[in-house]
Structures are given as C-alpha cells and as structure tokens.
Amino acid sequence: MNDALVIPLLICAVGTMLAGLFVATALGARISTRAMGWLLAIVPAIAFGALIAQSPLVLAGQTLSWSIAWIPSLGLRFSLWLDGLSLLFGLLVSGIGMLVVLYAGYYFAPKHADDAHGEDGKSHPPASQDADARFFFYILLFMTSMLGLVLAGDVITLFVFWEGTSITSFLLVAYKSKDEDARRGAFRALFITGGGGVALLAGLIFASSIAGSTSFADIVQQGDVLRASELYPVMFALIALGALTKSAQAPAHFWLPGAMSAPAPASAYLHSATMVKAGVYLLARLHPAIGLTDLWFWTLSLVGLATMLIGAYVGFKQNDLKALLAYSTVSQLGVLVMLIGQDTEIAFKALVISVLAHALYKSALFLVTGIVDHESGTRDLRQLGGIWRAMPATFGVALIAALSMAGLPPLFGFLAKETLLATATHPNVPPIVDVIFPAAAVAAGALILAQAGLIVFEAFLGKPKAELHPHEAPPPMWIAPAIPAVVSLAVGLLPEPEALATLLARAAAASYGAPVKVSLALWTGISVPLVLSAVAVTIGAITIALRGRLRPLFTRLSGALSLEPLYTGALKAIDGLAWLVTRVQNGKLRLYLAIMLISGGVIVVTIGRLSVPIVAPADFGMRPELAALRVFLLLVVGIAALASVRLRRDLFAILALTASGLSIAVLMMLEPAPDIALVQVVVETLTMVVLVLVLTRVPREQRERAFEFTFRQTRPGLIRDVLIALGSGAVMFAIVMTALGTRPRESQVTPYYEQNAKPLTGANDIVGAIVIDFRGFDTLVEISVFAAAGLAIYTLLRYASRKAGDRDDDIPVLDERMLPFRGIAGPLTSPFVQALARLILPLTLLLAATHVLYGHDQPGDGFTAGVIISLGLATWYVVFGYAETKRRLAWLQPSLFIGAGLLLAIGSAVAAAIIGGSFFSPVDFGKLMGLGFLPRGVYFSTATFYELAICLTVTGGAVLMLDTLGHPKDSDAETTRQMDEIAALRRRGEVTLGEAPASDGEGQQLPAEDKRPEVLERES
Amino acid sequence: MEVFVALTISVLFAIGVFQLLRRNLIRSAIGMAIVSNAINLFLLAAGAYRGEVAAYANQVGQRSDALPQALILTAIVISMGGFAVVLSMLYVLSVRYKTSDSDEVKGLTH
Question: I need a surface site. Which of A324, A856, A897, A902 has the fewest CB within 10 A?
Fold first, then answer.
C-alpha cells in the first residue's frame, strides 16, 4: 500500500472540480482565459511532481500499489499501481497535459482587435468565456480518466477510466458543437471506441475469470493458465478489438482523422500523446499475460503493419495539416502495435522509445498546427507558405519536431526509427515475412519523412502568400510545444541520461515480462538498420523533391482501405430498423399497454413456475360472522369496481372507485390493521377530491365526446379488451394463488420487529416502528417522492404546459354550473356550509396534532395527519374558493412546508446520529432536556419530530396538488400577465432578481386582492 | 376464504386493466387506482399470520403481520403521489390536445 499513489488522481479530480466551478458559476467570467490556463496548469504540474517523487522507487525496480474495497460483495477493489510502464505513461499524461492546459489558455483567449484575418469564422476558436471554461473542464476530466487508466491496477478500474476517456474525448471532439462535422466526427469516434470498449469489457471479464482475479498483478502471473485456456482465442479477440479500435488501427483507423475537428490543444493531447496510446498501453500491459502466442504475433504484426502503411500513404496526400498529422499518428500507432506483436527484447526497447519520441514530437507538431491556424487563419497547405518570416520561433519549434518525426539524427526520433528497423531485421522474425517487415518499415519511414518535409516546406518555407497575414504567437504559446521539441533534441545530444534510460528499461521490462536493456546512444556503428535508415532517408528525400508530382498521383490512386463504408452502412441499417419499428408503433397508447400486458403475462406464465394448487390453500380458523363480513366486503369491493366501468357519468364512476377503496379500508380494519385502514380512508378521500377537481377542469364537450367513445366501442374492440382484461385477471389469479399457497406460515422478519419494537424504539405501534424507525430511511425517500410529485404537478401545470405558446384563451374556462359552490366566482355557498368549513379546519389540525404526538403508540401517523390537514384545506378551497382561501390562510406556503419538513426530518435524524450514534436512532430529546411535565404518552423523541416532519411534507405536497389542480384558470391568466410584467421590469433592470416575486406566493395573491371587494359585497 | 380473496384480487385487477384500456383518459386513471388497490389487497393477503389483534406491542394474542402493513403504507403513499401526477398530465393533455381520448394523443410535436 502506498497512499501517495492517489495524489496524482486526486489532484486531477480536484482540478476538474475547480474547472467545473469556472463553468458553473460566475467565477469563470471574472478570470481571464489565460489566467485560467496558468492556474489550472498547476494541477497536472502537481500530478507530474507527485509521480516524479515516486520514481526513485520505481526505477529501483519496485512496483507500488494501492487499493480500497469498492464493491466488496462482488470482490471488486479500486486499485492503482505504478511500475515502469505506468510511470512512463503517467509522466507523459501529466507532463504534456500541463503544457496543453497552459497553451489552451492562450489558444482560447479572445483575439486581439488588430487581427485582420477574421474572415473564416469556422477555424476560429469560440471567443465566449464560458466556452473556454468548458474546455478546461473537459480536458481535466479527460486527464483524470487518462491518468486513472494508466495507473489502474485492476481490470475493472482500468475499464471505468477507459470508458471515461471515450466519453470525455467525445465531449472534446464535439467541442465546437454548432459545427456539424465536429458532431459527426465525435459521434463516429465514440461509436467505434465505445463499441470497442464493450468488447474489451467482455474480454477483460473473461481474462479475470480465467485468472481468478481482476488484479493485473495476478493476471500477469497467470499467463500460462490464460494461454492454455480454450477460451483464449475469444478472450484475445475481444481484448484486441477493444485495444485496436481505441488505438485507431486499420481498418477502424478512420475515426482518428475524423476526430480532428477537436480544438488543437485537445488533438495534441488526446490524439497524439495519450488517448490513442491507451490501446497500446493495454496491449503492452497484458503482453506478459496473453502475448507470446502465434495468434498474438500474427494479429498484431499484420494489423500494425497495415496501419503503418495506410497511415503513411494516406497522410502524404492530405492538404489539411491536422489531417496529415492524424494519419502520421495512425501510422505511428501501427508501428507501436506491430512492435508489441514481436517476441524480441529489441522490440520492446523500440516500443518504449517510440512511445516517448512520438509523444514528444507529435504533441509539439499538433500544438504548432494550432498556432499556425490561430495566427494565420488557416491550416490548409495549399493556402499556407512562407510563414516562417512572421513566426520564426514557431518555425524553429516545428523544424526540430519535424526532424524528430522524420527520424533524422541527432534527434530522438532517429533512435525510434533505428530500433524499429532493428526489430524488423531481427533474426527471430519468421522467414515468410522477413523481407516484408523491413521493406514496409523502410517505406513507411520514407513516407513519414516526406510528411514531415511537407510541413516544413509547404507550410513554413516556400513562397509567402499575399492573402496571409500571419503573426507570431505570444511566447507561452510557442514555448509549450518548444519544451517537448527541445527534449527530443536534448535526449539525442546529451550524453546518456541515466534516469531516462532506466525508466524506459523498466517500462520495457514491465511489458516484455523480462529485463530489457535500454541505451540511448545514437551511434552504434555501421549496421543493417543504419543502412536501411539511409535508404529510407534517401527515398524520403526524393519523395519530398518530387512532391508536386507525387501527391496528385497519390490522390488519384486512392487507397482508403477502411471500415468506413461498413460504419456508414451500420448506421443506415440502424436507422432503417428504427423506421420499421416505428411503423409498428402507431402512437396509440392503448396498443402499447396491451402489448406490454400480454407480453408481461406470457413471461410470467412461461418462466414464473406458477402452480395453482388444486386444493385450496389451508384456511385459518376464523369466526363465521367475521368470515361472512369479509366475504361481503370483498363482494362490495368487486362490485363497486365493476360499477366504475358501467356507470356512465365520470363523477359516478369516481364515486364508485372511492366506494371500492373505502371497502378495502374496512377489510384492512378486519385484518386487523388499523394503521393502514386509516391511511386508506384518508388517501381514498383525497384521491376522490383530486379526481373531481381534474374532472371539473375537463370541458363539458370533451367529456361528452369521451362518453361517446367510452360506451360506443365497436364489438371487436370490446371483445379484445375484455379478453386482455380477463387474461390479465387469470394470470393475476395464478400469481396470487401461487403466492398464497406457497408462502411460509412463519415469517422470518416480523418476529424480529415484534420483539424489538418496544425495547429498541419505544413504540407500541409495530407498523409505526417499522415505518418510522426500522425503515426510517425508506420513509424519508417516500415523503421526498410525495413532495416531488406535488412539485412536479405544480411545474407541469404552471409552466411546462404553456411553453409551446399556448394562448390564455386556449385554457378551458370553468363551466360554472359544474361547480356551483365555487365561492368567489360562482354563487355564494350557504353560511351553514361556511361555518362548517371554519369549524372543520381547526378540528383537522387538532386531529393531526394527536396523530403526530401519539402516532408511535396509537393508530395513525404523520402521513395520515398531513392528509387530514389537506382534506380540511380542500374543504376551504371548495367552500371559499381559491383566491379567498389563499387570502385567509396566508400561512399556507406549500413549498415552505415541504422544505421545512424535509429539513426537520434530516435535522432530527442527524441530531439523533450525534446523540444516539446512528441516523434516525431513537432518542428521547424531551427526557434529555428534562421536560418532565409532558403528559403521559407524549414524548419529544426522534420519532415525534419525524412524524411532524412527515406531516409537514405531506401537507405541503398535497396542498401543492390541490393548489395547482384547484387553481381557477381565469385568474391564472392574470398570474401569467403579472409574470410577463415582472419579466419586462426585470429586463429593464428595474427589479432585480432577488426582490422579484418569482414564486407563486405573491403572484397569486394579487388576483385575490383584486377580487376582494366583490366578496365583501356579497358577504354583506 | 383465501380462494375468495384471490378471486377478488384478480377480478379487481382485470377490471383495472379493462379500465386502463379505455380511450377515455379519466377512465384509464380510475383503472390505475383500481390496479393499485388490487396490489395493496394482495400485499395484505400475503401476510404470514392471520391476526386476531392488531400489531401492537401491548396486545396479547396472535398479532396481524406488521411487515406487509408497513409495505402497504408506503405503497399507498407512493401510488397517491404517482396518481396525482398522472391526473395532472391528463389535465395538461386535455388542455393541449382538446381531448381526453388517448388515441388522439400522439406525436408530441403539437
């Protein structure tokens, strides 16, 4: 265990949050983009430093690891480890990340006013500030994923970060989201790497189940077992699919050039140094475990070889600088994959050298391309030329990086090419390919050199173009790519850097599975590779010289070997399938419901192992008069429900439903289950009230039409529905009979509750104890859901329903005959009813209070209390009308009730946690505070507060429902008008955000005041 | 008796399904309430004990099973909330589409 390993990841996560803060808050607007770049570059710098601090141990040959239990029930651990390979990649990720973030600050900074080349808007980065903060957020998110990927010590941990890089790279490629090409490129990249990711997950799970562990340390030890397994080919194919698609190998390489719509810093980071090497990293990591087979050799060698050649060939004909770099990256990735396929020491030496060399020169070149694009307005080779005069520093950087890319001495790239050629000519290469390998390597080398030449000669040298007005970039912008470029030079020129050589040797050894000697000496005497290298340089030089004639030829001989047609074909097929499926879905909701019910029934019947006992389940002894009552009630339940079908008026159907529900309440009473019987009664009543409220909102002619199609259904339709209903009923019968016939007669759980309710919670009411104490957290979620339902209704009816430009006269005006007692607007309700309503509300409050206080010992609970209060209030709405109720009951603020209730619940639970040791643990606060005068049976305990909280929340939620559904629409129009006025005022700056009556509270009271004189008149 | 309870539950369920399949959205809402009643009744019937007294710690005798009751309590609350949301959607549909016919409610591009 080495806790310091977490630091790089942790700091990246913190940095991401900081960048997220810039996006999400006004803070981002106050900090300039450049300052943001400097500030956030500290994050990778710390990560880099933290890795460097660990490096002495790694260089000494240790492997550091760290892990915590993640999902212990699945045996999953979140683990990190650091060996040479991880360290090499980790340093690249954090080091280049630092430069990229710094660079991005300048890249995205608003352009100077004196820039004359602002015509081509497309290639320009967006100038908006929050867009820049978004970039930093994404890039740091990506950095966190990438660092996690290379530091992962466990296949599942690796996979999670792997997917993280796919998703964040999607966000980065689609960064200019208004650009269709960017979106398409991003989707293509995600489609391919994401699809590969699925295969990879399967492959990794195969590997870890064969090896018996998800940890890399164990999997690498189990190499022989893995290779011997008969599942090896499947596992290898899946893992290779994941790794090769990620690393843009042919024939799936086409996503990488497509992803060049990403901003330059993102391309420099993702598409040269880090993400595309994730596949290479994984293959290198797993080489000791699943490598060393013929399958491995041939797959990787041939795929790598093909990719190397395709990338080198196609890249040479590109005109877009970034596309050229993308294809040369594809080519280089092919080289790396091919190297991993070889079973020779020199191959792994070449691998690590190439990884480092390529990351250094390619990130520098991508960043330079960004500068060229940024400062001259284009990155098209046909439009560029002679810009070296205007930007000498950038040119210098580009020249060094291009020389390294070309593989010329004394740069680091030369060493990479030398070792590649040495691998290709190694005696271990099978005789069938011992000519092809070196020839391909030479050809690719020559073409890559030619590509590097294109950058130098076509973009920077040559005849200056009149229409270009290039500028030199601000120093930090070119210093960022200068650092990797200079490093590639320094590694070549300086005498053997000991630490770097050791690092590379450790990395190669971790991948090869045995020690590898790495020396960084450029000159090793005349050898076959050197001769081949000279050949490659000569061919490359000739290619450059003849570029004017060769490139058109290359373009004509288009050899775009790729899966792209397959990809577009697959997308088309998916679209076609969607079209077909949506033909079947005709939009009739009833059809969907019927299909769901039928298929649900079929599934239950076929796999449910239903067994309807032929002999009825054993009956409990029951007193005959109770049994008779029960049968009677069951009959009432069924008949009332049936009546709701037959009754023609909707109102009567609703009443029948309520009758059925209330009979169930009586059945519950007979159980005997008084708690739920109470809840059932109040909820059934509230349901009825809400249903009737909605009913009054549906215009009469609509309901008359509804009557037509409800009762004049065609015979076949009726038969179909009856059959579905009967079928569902039959399946339900089978389920119930199976359940009742096979249920245990002795509960496993209930006795625990029965025995512990009193001693542990002090509750007499066992049901209450379960709801409030044993499953208190459940109840908290439950009341939150209820409150959310109230809020959802409020939002839906007040805002969502009128977004689409509904006019106010669209809203049905109440048919006043439907609700004659509608208080203000309708005829006045009788004084007797009014007096009754006045009397009812305090009574309900009193009743609610007793429920809250005694709920733990007696039937009833906070929920019942809340619904009872709501019913009392509903009476007021009915009797006094909406506005008048609002006016008289100013204290009734449903949202406030909800908030207070939830806070009280959480607060008392936290207080209980502090005193009693666990969330919602029962604590008698009254006793603690010495409130001895409380009457018998009344406590101020966690439960009491919780009941009160439930009561408040439920009242809030239910009142919100009544409020919204009972809101008279004519005054709603008024509210809308007022909201519009407020919005207009706000626009003019006369009302600030804080003081404006944004919520319903004040907005609704105004109409009430308008109408008040009228009411008084009537009352008098 | 249990066969009778099972019959009632399945009849309730069937009626609920039938109502859900009506074109009239108000009837569908009623159907939903009936289905949830059926399920609550099922939960109640699934208790392991046939109680003689209510589930209170101070009661002597065979207590009714407290566990399904607690589950029903939660179920009632949640279905009430869900039901209210469904109703408000019904209302919005009635305003937007000028109909309470579920067959006319399609293609939310209105």
Answer: A902
Beta carbons of B21 and A724 less than 8 Å apart = yes
**DSSP 8-state assignment for residue A126:** P
- What SS3 string covers B42-100? HHHHCCCCCCCECCECCCCCCECCHHHHHHHHHHHHHHHHHHHHHHHHHHHHHHHHCCC
pLDDT, residue A460, reads 86
**Beta partners for residue A71, in sequence order:** A76
> Touching check for A996 and chain B: CB below 8 Å?
no
Peptide bond preceding A410 in cis form (omega within 30 of 0) = yes
- What pLDDT is stored for residue A773 in this prediction? 85
Question: Cβ atoms within 10 A of the Cβ of A234, count?
Answer: 13
Is the pLDDT at B3 greater than 60, yes or no? yes
Considering only CB atoms, B48 lies closest to which of A630, A634, A747, namely A747
Candidates B100, B105, B108: best to mutate against A (most CBs of A within 10 A) is B100
What does the pLDDT read at residue A995?
41
pLDDT for the residue numbered A126: 42
Give the chain B residue whose CA is nearest to the CA of A774: B70
* Residue ranges of chain A whose pLDDT lies below 50: 113-127, 803-826, 970-979, 991-1020
- The total of other beta-carbon atoms located within 10 Å of residue A724's CB is 22
Q: Rounded to an integer, what distance in angstroms lies between the CA atom of residue A310 and that of residue A581? A: 39
| Dihedral angle, C-alpha A619, A623, A624, A629, nearest 10 ° | -90
Q: How many folded domains does chain B comprise?
A: 1
Substitution target in B20, B69, B106, B108 with the highest count of A β-carbons within 10 Å is B69
Which residue, A967, A989, A1006, sits at the end of a domain?
A967
The DSSP string of A579-609 is HHHHHH--S-HHHHHHHHHHHHHHHHHHHS-
* Best CA proximity match to A894, nearest among A975, A955, A968, A971: A955
Model pLDDT, residue A801: 56
List the 52-91 stretch of B: residues with Cβ below 8 A of A: 53-58, 63-67, 69-70, 72-74, 76-78, 80-85, 87-91
Q: Is the CB of A736 inside 8 Å of chain B's CB atoms?
A: yes
Rounded to whole angstroms, the Cα distance separating A847 from A856 reads 15
CA A147 to centroid of chain Cα atoms: 19
The pLDDT of residue A684: 92
**At which residue do the structure tokens 């004196």 appear?**
A114
Cβ neighbours of residue A87 under 8 Å, at least 6 residues apart? A51, A54, A55, A58, A503, A506, A507
Structural domain boundaries, residue A798: 773-802+819-967
Q: Report yes or no on B110 lying in a domain.
A: no
Distance in Å, alpha carbon of A642 to nearest chain B alpha carbon: 7
3-state DSSP call for residue A895?
Answer: helix
Confidence at residue A114, expressed as pLDDT on a 0 to 100 scale = 38
Q: pLDDT value at position B88?
A: 86
**CA torsion sign, A879 to A880 to A886 to A890?**
negative
Domain enclosing residue B49, as ranges: 2-101
* Helix A155-173 / helix A232-246 crossing angle, nearest 10 deg: 30
What's the pLDDT score for residue A554? 73
ipTM attached to this prediction? 0.95
Whichever domain contains B89, its CATH number is 1.10.287
* In a domain? residue B46: yes
Which of A587, A726, A739 faces B14 most closely, judged by CB atoms?
A726
Are A860 and A950 within one domain?
yes
Task: Please give the pLDDT value at position A119.
Answer: 39
Across the A:B interface, residue pairs with CB atoms under 8 Å apart total: 314
